Amino acid sequence: MAAADNSSSxxxxxxxPFIFSPDSPPTLALTPHxxxxxxxxxxxxxxxxxxxxxxxxxxxxxxxxxxxxSDMRRSCSVALDNVNVNKNRYMDxxxxxxxxxxxDSCKDYRPSARGYINASFISTSSSKxxxxxxxxxxxxxxxxxxxxxxxxxxxxxAILMLTRLVDNYKMVKCGDYFQAExxxxxxxxxxxxxxxxxxxxxxxxxxxxxxxxxxxEESVAVLHIQYPEWPDHGVPNDTLAxxxxxxxxxxxxxxxxxxxxxxxxxxxxxxxxxx
Length: 275
Description:
This protein has 275 residues and is of the alpha/beta class. It has 6 helices and 10 strands, in the order E-H-H-H-E-E-E-H-E-E-E-E-E-H-E-H. Strands 1, 2, 3, 4, 5, 6, 7, 8, 9 and 10 form a 10-stranded mixed sheet that branches.
């Protein structure tokens, strides 16, 4: 894919001025301690693969702890409010009230909407540099503006998209909330500009986007990484593309905002957040 450059389309000052490069990320330099931990983890995984019964038992225990319908009504009350129901792609995949992302400036000004978007904060303790994520659904046409409001409000430096827009059977997998190759694209109060677009050797599509707010002089630089070959129900056959995504994320400054992860629904995005 040829690179597209619309860098002259805006003149806003960026609130996260990190420069995204379309070149391959530099090799990660691991310390001896990190190499030791990786070796121990690989050994543990290899050992576990020899015990499928144990894996099945662990999965069964997790399934038994799944939230019930009554628990969901109590824990996801904002998502189930009548004014927010149509903002959910699937009614069995909802954010908890306690960890949901709240929008300060929401296009739905009804008080009961409470700045709702189908998105949740996820924190991990495995890495200090990659400890903040927002897991969200593939945006719907009427939630595009909400999505970009979230990215702008929380100064999100990267978006990982683990799906394609349309499958081989012409079924829509995710709304087209980002393509702006022919110039700036308006989403209500937000303007999104494509700085460059590039395909990587590992089947990733990389985009450098800039998000501008019509009522602010600030802009947010965003690295959009699309992995269109990630399967709907499962995981990739190899780790090449996933490793490239993680390499690019590890080179982001740690003081930026949370990384957004989404696929068609929640399952795949949570797999990557916990990688």
